[in-house]
Amino acid sequence: MDTKAQDILPARLSVAPMMDWTDRHCRYLHRLLSRRALLYTEMVTAPALVRGGAMHLLEHSEAEHPVALQLGGSEPEELAQAARLGAEAGYDEINLNVGCPSDRVQSGTFGAVLMKDPALVAECCAAMIEASPVEVTVKCRIGVDDQTPEEVLPEFLARVGAAGVGRFIIHARKAWLQGLSPKENRDIPPLDYDFVCRMKEMFPGLHLSVNGGIASLAEVRAFLDTGLDGVMVGRAAYHQPADILCAADRLIFGEDGPDSTPEAAVAEMLPYIEAHLVRGGRLHQVTRHMLGLFAGRPGARAWRRILSEGATRPGAGPELVQEALSQVAPDQRAAASA
Predict the structure, then answer these.
(1) Burial class (CB in 10 A: 0-12, 13-18, 19+), 173
(2) What's the rounded mean pLDDT across residues 233-253?
(3) Which residue among 34, 127, 193, 301 is the one 20 to 30 A from 322 at the CA level?
(4) Is residue 257 included in any domain, yes or no?
(5) pTM
(6) Are 242 and 276 part of one and the same domain?
């Protein structure tokens, strides 16, 4: 396998950038569940880095790799500077957000509204590529508002691809910039997976991943079997991380087992939590990302309740996590296969 192929292999399965969710604590947890899946930061705006000097937004652990930085912006030089800062901070990929439909993002003239200006996106990406020694990628929608995806997305991929971008993550829904909230934009516009698959047929030289509404590893494998290069999972990976990530290295990346377990991840999170508390952090800043670890297991409700109610209390520490874990029944599926 050549170096290029090795670089993009993690993108076979990635965890989507999600505001307020995929912070460094969340990514550390997800990395304990899968060694191979590609992780993304929350979106960081280029102005915050370049004008605001908010370098703390680039903080991450070496343990998180492979990890990508997602940027938001629409000014080529500013994005170039932000991409350079991200590369210098050690990120493995710099991703441009052309998919977020929130009003706050639109007011900054970036996110999904940029689907209306592929020439500007191409200019931004060319500047980022020139400034960054690591790969620049794009996450986009199939279109926005009254656009016809069959008309706009091929042009978008062709123009931005010609600027040097070789990898795209396509959210298989249109975004409605007026009339729908960001939450509604994740659910109401219909998904068109077949259209994304047709884009792969039309652009065989591009690395294309599909995103949107994917909720199981079986679905991930099915999309890969169609010829798509990668699959990005969002909310399911956050709310049921064990279901998406524990078997991913074996089923998606072809590694030999054994699969990871949420119990082992909890044990490895304890020293991480201790170090976080020593630095002045609060327990709930970490444990809020762990609530779904045992989704579907007997005792999962007690696990969530103990952490939700207790982690915000002054002095709460790793012993609360251990108390919550004691309420979770052993995984009968794992016991049966042992």
Answers:
(1) buried
(2) 98
(3) 34
(4) no
(5) 0.93
(6) no
Cα–Cα distance measured from residue 58 to residue 121, given in angstroms and rounded to the nearest whole number: 23
Q: Is 303 found in the same domain as 209?
A: no
Task: Please determine, for residue 138, whether its predicted confidence score (pLDDT) is greater than 80.
Answer: yes
User: What gap in Å lies between CA 109 and CA 73, rounded to an integer?
Assistant: 7
DSSP designation for 38 = E
Active site residue 100: yes
Tell me, yes or no, whether 143 and 287 share the same domain: no
Higher pLDDT, 80 or 100: 80
Domain match, 9 and 43 both = yes
Q: Is residue 17 part of a domain?
A: yes
**CA triplet 224, 227, 232: central angle to 5 degrees?**
40
Which residue bears the tokens 């937004």?
A: 57
In the set 100, 124, 125, 140, the catalytic residue is: 100
Say if residue 15's pLDDT is above 90: yes
Residue 90: both structure tokens together = 């050690």
In a shared domain, residues 237 and 98: yes
155 C-beta neighbours (distance < 10 Å), count: 11
In this prediction, residue 10 carries a pLDDT of 87
Report pLDDT digits (tens) over 323-338.
999 999 887 655 444 4
Contact between residue 124 and residue 79 where contact means Cβ atoms under 8 Å apart: yes
115: containing domain? 3-251
Asked if residue 292 and residue 152 are part of one domain, the reply reads no
| DSSP single-letter state for residue 147 | -
Is residue 194 predicted with pLDDT exceeding 90? yes
Q: Cis peptide before 154, with omega less than 30 degrees from 0? A: no
Q: What is the predicted pLDDT for the residue at 336?
A: 46
